[in-house]
Batch of 2 targets.
Target 1
Amino acid sequence: MKTDTIVLGAGIVGTSIALNLAMRGRSVVLVDRRGPGEETSYGNAGLVERASIYPVAFPRRISALADVALGRNPAAHYHWNALPGLVPWLFAYWRASAPARILDYARTIETLLAHSLAEHERLAGASGAGHFFREGGWLKLYRTEAGLENERGEFPLASQYGLSAREIGVDEALAMEPSLRPVFRGAVIWSDPHSVSSPGGVTQAYAAHFAALGGHVRRGDARTLARLGAGWSVTTEEGGVEAPEVVVALGPWAMDVLRPFGLRLPLQVKRGYHMHYHAADGTALSRPVLDEEGGYVITPMVGGIRLTTGVEFARRDAPKTPVQLDRTETLARQLFPLAARAEPEPWMGSRPAFPDMLPVIGAAPGQNGMWLAIGHQHLGFTLGPITGRLLAEMMDGETPCTDPAPFSPHRFG
Ligand SMILES: Cc1cc2nc3c(=O)[nH]c(=O)nc-3n(C[C@H](O)[C@H](O)[C@H](O)COP(=O)(O)OP(=O)(O)OC[C@H]3O[C@@H](n4cnc5c(N)ncnc54)[C@H](O)[C@@H]3O)c2cc1C
């Protein structure tokens, strides 16, 4: 089969790219070894984090680092045996987390975040996925004055970008979410973000609209990608596919395909877990809630209340070690009346991450006709649709809606 473009990876990023290209009239084959939206894009906290201009940075204070090292911070966990291989990456992450560079990061990521809601709305409107989305922002809760004080430090920059963060007292937070228990001393409501009741469902709806426009969704192993003359070929369960252009949007698995072509990019993973819980009778949650010092988020989802954990540094394919889930479940039960676990096994996924915390969006170095859209770390669900638009504009040789230079793979040399 011949097509204009092969897109490898049907997570939120690849699916949004395929849909954007199909909406522009290209013929596209979207290839995944599973169904669309069944991996990382299924299991996240469901936030369209419009207001997340501050990154999840590497701790700079010795005390914060000691908390992680000694297992006192439930938001972070690590495997000892993964650390030696991570040293250069962690060092680059630490450097990128310096206060001055965080401001550069904020300016850069804002160029994508500013489009994030509108691009989701455009794709959701076309795909009939609007029912998954809710307004109401997200509520961040603080158990300590120090945590609140730290959060207040983010307000001035947020307001420069027109984002709304309002500190509220415990009573006002409980009025917004009456099922919460007052185990916190203050809260901040960030009202710009939206959230969804099924990130996997949203991705599948975008894929279904892509198919309705004539796009092809095929099962196949992206590692069969090969050069074919000036173009590319890949093998799927329904036969070979050939195209002059290929997009690699394989999230945490991107390097499995890129390494054999000689591409060296510092992509690592930050693993995370989730579990669904039934809500106790008569209780409800209407928006995602972050327990900052507890190190977890609870989000109302179609499958129940989803508790998502922070970061685990481990080899991507190492067996699950859901210790953070066990620790944060105890804290979450203090905050919200969770009933029984709704699943036998915790879900685990991997945030694909570069050390400077920015994604790579652009042409692959030295590989004519290959494009990259990877490494969206904590913001992939948020940024999938704007990534799809930006890359489609670049591929069509148009003036892009925002400057893609900061997202170039060339920044790694
Ligand atoms: C616990 C947790 C909470 C998060 N919360 C949020 C949040 O609230 N908001 C937010 O914006 N982001 C969040 N994220 C991040 C977000 O989920 C990811 O950044 C995003 O899903 C990455 O999307 P992707 O399309 O790049 O990767 P994926 O969704 O992983 O897609 C990659 C696809 O490639 C396919 N694939 C892999 N190897 C092959 C192969 N060899 N052949 C064929 N196909 C292959 C996979 O099957 C998969 O479908 C969270 C992540 C985690 C882990």
Target 2
Amino acid sequence: MRIGILGSGLLGGKLGTLFARAGHEVVFSYARSQEALKRLARNAGANAQAGTPAEAARHAQALILAVHWSRLADVLGQAGDISGNVIVNCSLTMNADNTELAIAHTSSGLEALAKIVTKARVVAAFNTVPSEVLFGVYERRRRANRPSLVYCGDDKRGKALAATLIRDVGFNPVDAGPARIARYIELFALLVAQLAYEGKGGPELAYRFERFGK
Ligand SMILES: NC(=O)c1ccc[n+]([C@@H]2O[C@H](COP(=O)([O-])OP(=O)(O)OC[C@H]3O[C@@H](n4cnc5c(N)ncnc54)[C@H](OP(=O)(O)O)[C@@H]3O)[C@@H](O)[C@H]2O)c1
């Protein structure tokens, strides 16, 4: 697949690197430094390149949205026409000072995004996983007991594609249901982030949390 990364920071940078290593063509975009994007692409290998959001969106089968919620309008504006594209939303609707979700309970980031990009196919995935665990999970992908990762959405094609990408980076995809389930998943993701970044040994604990019930 050709995958455009919109937001090549902690999460987008690592996901793009792993997609490239898994054999997909990746375009990293949206960082404040073009040099950082080029460095990311070099480290990710021959399948990766750096570009603008519009270049990332062009011919992409999937767009990975991994920006702070406050950057949403800017990155989408730069991406241009994304009609028909699958957008995998990894972003959480954090407010400006990252203390709480700006949208929650009665709606979700995924549902809000669907209203903004009405002609794209939106799905939520990767927003519950601390980026720190991604490389370790990928390295252990050939083991039978993979950690689970939830995704949700209303678009069938988008969901099938998200499940493939989740599998490709070493997780077992779990379909959590329609888009409105994002209301609960995004709250859950905030809890995981709390565990990951505010507790001792957080990412390991969050990683175990992903495997709860196995
Ligand atoms: N990190 C995680 O483990 C994790 C886990 C689950 C969900 N999420 C969600 O994923 C989203 C991204 O998180 P993150 O941790 O990856 O954030 P991040 O490291 O800050 O990445 C965001 C990207 O946006 C770029 N950016 C910000 N302002 C910009 C501007 N004015 N112009 C151009 N580029 C700009 C950043 O560029 P620079 O690199 O130059 O700063 C960076 O590449 C958030 O919504 C977060 O809640 C993250």
